[in-house]
Amino acid sequence: MDTNRIKILVIGNGMVGHQFVESMSASNKACEITVLSAEPRLAYDRVHLSEFFDGKSADDLALTTGEHYDELGVNFVTNEKVTNINRSDKSVTASSGKKYSYDKLILATGSYPFVPPIPGNNQEHCLVYRTIEDLKAISASAKLAKVGVVIGGGLLGLEAANAIKQLGLETHVVEFAPQLMAVQLDQSGGNLLKRKIEELGVTVHIQKATQDIVKGDKCRYKLQFSDGTHLETDLVLFSAGIRPQDELAKKFDLEIGERGGIVINDLCQTSDDNIFAIGECALWQNFIFGLVAPGYTMARVVASQLSGGTLQFNGADMSTKLKLMGVEVGSIGDAHGKTSGAKSYIFENQISGVYKKLVIDEDKNKILGAVLVGDTRDYDTLLQFSLNDMDLPESPESLILPQSADTTPMGAFELPDSAMICSCHNVTKGDIKQVIKNGTTNLSELKQCTKASTGCGGCTALLKTTVDKELLALGVEVKDDICEHFTYSRKQLFHIVKVEQIKSFDELRDKHGKGHGCEICKPAVGNILASVWNDYILKQTHLPLQDTNDTYLGNMQKDGTYSIVPRIAGGEITPNKLIVLGEVAKKYNLYTKLTGGQRIDLFGARVDQLPPIWEELINAGFETGHAYGKSLRTVKSCVGSTWCRYGVQDSVGQAIELENRYKGLRSPHKIKFAVSGCTRECAEAQSKDIGIIATENGWNLYVCGNGGMKPRHGDLFATDLDTKTMVRYIDRILMFYVRTADRLQRTSVWLEELDGGLEYLQQVIIEDCLDLAQELENQMQTVVDSYQCEWKTTIESPESLKRFRQFVNSESIDSNIQFITEREQIRPATPVEKKLIPIKEL
Amino acid sequence: MTISNQWQTICQQNDLINDSGICVLLNDNQQVAIFYLKSTEQTYAISNYDPIGQANVLYRGIIGSIDEDIVVASPLYKQHFSLISGECIQDKTMSVDVFETRIVDDLVQLKVT
User: How many whole angstroms separate alpha carbon A532 and alpha carbon A579?
Assistant: First the structure.
């Protein structure tokens, strides 16, 4: 190893420690980085920790892997707690007894949860909420528990309460202060939040000081409060704030703040020039930053310093926007209006539960802070005003007053180039402009190369607006015409077809297009017509629009033969039907393979063989599987509670019902579902467009996942739904997708490009903010009611059957289709093999 | 049976499908794709063999236009072949045979050279 390389030793591999490793290895290759972590695993996403209870595994939450560190050339040791810092010889000693030397030492030891000194706080089921190990302990403890209490009504406390509620416990929050989230919200905001959370079934106790935790009468424990009241519970979760993990620094004489925290300067240096501290263990100007973004900034500052850069830490904005148990909460700057002379505007809608406060300075010129509860759509705009010190518009109240639905965030205001668009990855508007100037104009590519909007995702809508405005300013026309024959996007064509009641391609082309169409616009229009009117797709007027797969109701293979995939709803099949499939495959000499969607694929059918094969299948009770269409493919399922020891719901039954409901729906691209009968997720529902995971209380709905080329985990859309509500949501989501997606756009990309992302989709579907829900449901019901098996209709129509001939003037078969036997089944002959087979005389 | 340089009847007019293709077997050994464009009442004929996908499938492609050219998109890999010149638009080194067509007394005829 190169001995001249600077040795960097990082203690701690939390989110901030990991960010440092990434920044450091990106900015300086000539260093040797070693990471020591006391935890058993490498860095994971603590911000989304609660998703562990939604079924995400430790691997899902992981921010990195050993392989990735290996690739970066970073050494790492887990389960390695540092016990000594030997400042004189610049080395540390760890629990294993091993000694590690350093040139520069980075302390990223994070924080630990503060447990108030209440007698009885150290009992078995008194826990904290910080690491995956904590969550495992909570999970185990909750198994035999009925009631759970969170002590602490701050941001983390409410997240913890959500977690134990999801575990099915009767949930209480106990807060010492007179309101929830006292740091971020004012009293009115706190009151509304309390009301909303109580509506969700969590009991909130404010102004309660816990004195004692003793043995309970009905539950494991009893909390005794100072006012003489008490509360019985089986589980106590402490979430009363964090304390910096500064023990090591203290022990080895680094300067520590009066109330803890390793003192750092603007370069994030501690009192020892060779030792830096970043993240929640660090104290800057007597302040601990308990959020991830400032920690990331500190990580970048140190990486810059160690690679000859000049970046400094100048504090950080502590504004936050989040969703607590489905309640939107936002807080910006001086939320309490403590600045002298501060005045405020307040908007409250008690009917729908929205509270907004805008705090402005004495001169009515700048934003000082804001509180948003129940609706955070104004957050991005307000935050930009606050961060960029922008002058307020003439009537500042317009910033928080309800606006019409089509107002885009920041639409009317010009941001300075220094405006921070993505604070997770430190991307400014200037950075985005530069990337666009360099030629990247596509939003997803832009996200990839700047990383903007790939952290918490909170800036998605703002990013899109910024990019669109930039492109417009540069004179780049944002063109989404479908092809040369129509100057419209798929979404626009959909509206035209619907509004003008257009029923054929020719009609649409004559009115709104030109030329003879092409293989892009024809299937797209065919697909739109099918989604809107759900006609038989092989009707004479629609036939020329279909891709060959739709025309012949099978998937064309490389030799021009087709595959046959009957529907096997939910993957459930009787032995008799299985025998039929085997017999048909044998009779027509078809290659047989199981698909990834729990069905059986039969390959090698010539076009003229399709009708007799399907006739036999339909007579045996099969129907088309739509494997050829841009439509619902399969609803995969695990075996569920009927047989499985762990299942909590009947996943097979649910899968079959859903598959039968949505079969035949034509959509912009194929759609896959899966239903898992418990949180073990054997059906892999999170990789599907619609994923459903059973809970004790109903179903958790995931949306817009994808396997395949560009995997994406589905987003948790709603929890503990009853079947009826779930079906209504799926109706709405699918129909909204059918209406608004681009041609051949899977739901995953659709959601990522949807303005406002998941939250917006939830507003449209759950809160019905566009007043569209009923129409979407009706439209879906029309499609469901007009379902027909296309193969059944086809074999009953002599006119349609005429299509299934290789030659209109001969009974001969295509002599170019030839097979070779391999592993006891057929496969297409290669061009070389074909020459070896004597072509039989016709 | 080989007939040179003369019109040969290959099917009935009502075998044609509006804005779509069918396939005929010529002289028991050559596959020809026949397309009918309803708006112009034009019939086109090209060899059915896709030289890129190496399969007899062109009659199952979607027909359309690129500027003034009338084309079929191969159902296999979507390259366009001009129904007028036979040329592959994406790969000028590739082309398919083109046949002259006419309709006489409801019969579709090809000029065989």
Answer: 38
**Residue recorded with tokens 């009293």:** A187
Q: What is the pLDDT of residues A623-666, one digit of tens each?
A: 999 999 999 999 999 999 999 999 999 999 999 999 999 998 99
Domain boundaries along the sequence of chain A: 6-111+244-306, 126-240, 490-546, 631-786
Residue of A nearest to B58 (CA): A560
Q: What is the ipTM of this complex?
A: 0.91
What is the rounded distance in angstroms from the CA atom of residue B92 to the CA atom of residue A264? Answer: 68
Predicted pLDDT of residue A409 = 45
**Residues of A whose CB is below 8 A from B66:** 484, 518
Distances (CA, A) of A591 to A264, A585, A600, A836: 69, 7, 10, 22
Subunit contact A806:B23, Cβ cutoff 8 A: yes
How confident is the model at residue A428, as a pLDDT?
A: 85
The CATH number assigned to the domain with range B15-112 reads 2.102.10.10
> What is the number of residues in chain A?
842
- Most B CBs within 10 Å: which of A516, A518, A811, as the mutation test of the B interface? A516
| Cross-chain CB nearest to B29 (options A484, A523, A842) | A842
Identify which of B28, B39, B78 has the shortest CB distance to residue A519: B78
Q: What is the per-residue pLDDT for A457?
A: 62
- Please determine, for residue A335, whether its predicted confidence score (pLDDT) is greater than 50: yes
The percent of residues in chain A predicted with pLDDT above 70, rounded, is 96
Domain borders along chain B are 15-112
CA dihedral B52, B58, B64, B69 (to 10 degrees): 60
What is the per-residue pLDDT for A839?
46
The domain over range A6-111+244-306 is classified in CATH as 3.40.50.1980? no
Nearest residue of A to residue B11 by CA position?
A809
Residue whose token pair is 């992302």? A757
Contact A803 B17 (CB under 8 A): yes
Which segments within A374-439 are labelled E, that is strand? Answer: 420-422, 427-428
A842: contact with B, CB 8 A cutoff: yes
Cβ-contact A655, A637 below 8 angstroms: yes
Section A265-293 average pLDDT: 93
Q: CATH assignment of A631-786, given 3.10.450.50, 3.30.450.20, 3.90.770.10, 3.30.413.10?
A: 3.30.413.10
CA atoms within 13 A on the CB side of A301: 23
pLDDT of residue A473 exceeding 90, the answer is no
CA distance linking residue B65 with residue B35, whole number of Å: 13
Residue A404 confidence (pLDDT) above 50: no
pLDDT confidence of residue A412: 42
Q: Pick the closest to residue A687 from A708, A670, A669 (CA basis).
A: A708
Q: Is A515 on the interface with B (CB under 8 A)?
A: yes
Same-fold call for A6-111+244-306 versus A126-240: yes
The CATH superfamily holding the domain A126-240 is FAD/NAD(P)-binding domain (3.50.50.60)
Give yes or no for a contact between A772 and A764, defined as CB atoms under 8 angstroms apart.
yes
- Assess whether pLDDT exceeds 60 at residue A695: yes
pLDDT mean across residues, chain A: 89
* Band (A30; pLDDT cuts 50, 70, 90): confident
